[in-house]
């Protein structure tokens, strides 16, 4: 990737601030076009490589798991969840309310999106091979996290509007299974949980990048999703569906990247592993060290 992006034309620097801003804009457009062309080329090349989905990870398997998990939660948990929540102490509710915002997407999408724009606005031709390798790796993984969270979030928004399920606050008047399809109202946006989708899309992406931290990431995602039920924003089946959407979309995207050998690879046993075997935090540390040595080259203007 680094060589393709590096071929983007150098717009130069210097001159008036407006000229420099225009140069950055042209460089951003050229680097983005080069990146898109690379993905398309890798996609065409990957068509000759057959990597069938492993048993349990096919689309029909996902539908089966969704029907089992979401159906079980809806039948056996949703009708009793509101009464159970009312037995919890206010201290427990306050504790979980303090962590529920981990499921919001803005604190993920804004920094990762800005970082992608910054990396694409750099003049890659001015960097040596080692620095380009570090920057391209960073761009791939940051772009993967951004796309996983953003795209799965769009799917959830469409499902919320399509289903229009009433939130638990209307349980006493409407029950647990009141649906008003195509209703644009936050009170009828319970299914599926957007917070659960976001946090599980994020941690699933983290599973593939930071393989050593899987248990910690899952624990964070689990309790962040459960907090939505504790504070009365969702039913358990909403959380289950959001979790499945977040996990499945991040897995599917990682697999598409692995087929194209963009940041990931498919191992002989069919599992997805990072293409770069070094611990990512070590790579970031080296990148920071190189950036300090060449801080002038990293200036986008």
UniProtKB/TrEMBL annotation:
<feature type="transmembrane region" description="Helical">
    <location>
        <begin position="62"/>
        <end position="82"/>
    </location>
</feature>
<feature type="transmembrane region" description="Helical">
    <location>
        <begin position="188"/>
        <end position="210"/>
    </location>
</feature>
<feature type="transmembrane region" description="Helical">
    <location>
        <begin position="107"/>
        <end position="124"/>
    </location>
</feature>
<dbReference type="InterPro" id="IPR036938">
    <property type="entry name" value="PAP2/HPO_sf"/>
</dbReference>
<feature type="transmembrane region" description="Helical">
    <location>
        <begin position="215"/>
        <end position="233"/>
    </location>
</feature>
<feature type="transmembrane region" description="Helical">
    <location>
        <begin position="136"/>
        <end position="159"/>
    </location>
</feature>
<keyword id="KW-0378">Hydrolase</keyword>
<dbReference type="Pfam" id="PF01569">
    <property type="entry name" value="PAP2"/>
</dbReference>
<keyword id="KW-0812">Transmembrane</keyword>
<keyword id="KW-0472">Membrane</keyword>
<feature type="transmembrane region" description="Helical">
    <location>
        <begin position="239"/>
        <end position="258"/>
    </location>
</feature>
<protein>
    <submittedName>
        <fullName>Undecaprenyl-diphosphatase</fullName>
        <ecNumber>3.6.1.27</ecNumber>
    </submittedName>
</protein>
<keyword id="KW-1133">Transmembrane helix</keyword>
<feature type="domain" description="Phosphatidic acid phosphatase type 2/haloperoxidase">
    <location>
        <begin position="141"/>
        <end position="254"/>
    </location>
</feature>
<keyword id="KW-1003">Cell membrane</keyword>
<dbReference type="GO" id="GO:0050380">
    <property type="term" value="F:undecaprenyl-diphosphatase activity"/>
</dbReference>
<dbReference type="InterPro" id="IPR000326">
    <property type="entry name" value="PAP2/HPO"/>
</dbReference>
């Amino acid at each position: 990737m680094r060589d393709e992006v590096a071929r983007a034309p150098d717009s130069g620097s210097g001159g008036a601030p407006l000229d420099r801003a225009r140069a950055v804009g042209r460089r951003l457009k050229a680097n983005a076009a080069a990146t898109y062309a690379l993905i398309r080329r890798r996609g065409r090349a990957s068509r000759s490589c057959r990597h069938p989905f492993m048993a349990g990870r096919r689309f029909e398997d996902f539908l089966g798991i969704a029907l089992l998990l979401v159906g079980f939660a809806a039948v056996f948990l949703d009708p009793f969840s509101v009464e159970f929540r009312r037995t919890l102490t206010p201290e427990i509710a306050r504790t979980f309310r303090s962590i529920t915002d981990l499921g919001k997407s803005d604190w993920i999408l804004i920094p990762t999106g800005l970082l992608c724009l910054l990396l694409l606005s750099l003049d890659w031709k001015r960097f040596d091979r080692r620095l380009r390798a570090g920057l391209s790796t960073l761009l791939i993984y940051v772009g993967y996290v951004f796309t996983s969270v953003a795209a799965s979030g769009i799917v959830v928004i469409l499902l919320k509007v399509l289903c229009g399920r009433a939130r638990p606050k209307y349980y006493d008047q409407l029950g647990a299974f009141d649906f008003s399809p195509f209703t644009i109202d936050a009170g009828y946006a319970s299914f599926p949980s957007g917070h659960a989708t976001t946090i599980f899309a994020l941690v699933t992406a983290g599973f593939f990048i930071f393989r050593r931290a899987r248990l910690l990431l899952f624990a964070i995602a689990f309790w962040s999703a459960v907090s939505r039920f504790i504070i009365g924003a969702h039913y358990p089946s909403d959380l289950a569906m959001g979790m499945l959407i977040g996990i499945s979309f991040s897995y599917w995207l990682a697999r598409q990247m692995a087929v194209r050998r963009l940041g990931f690879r498919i191992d002989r046993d069919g599992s997805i592993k990072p293409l770069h075997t070094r611990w990512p935090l070590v790579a970031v540390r080296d990148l920071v060290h190189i950036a300090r040595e060449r801080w002038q080259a990293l200036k986008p203007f």
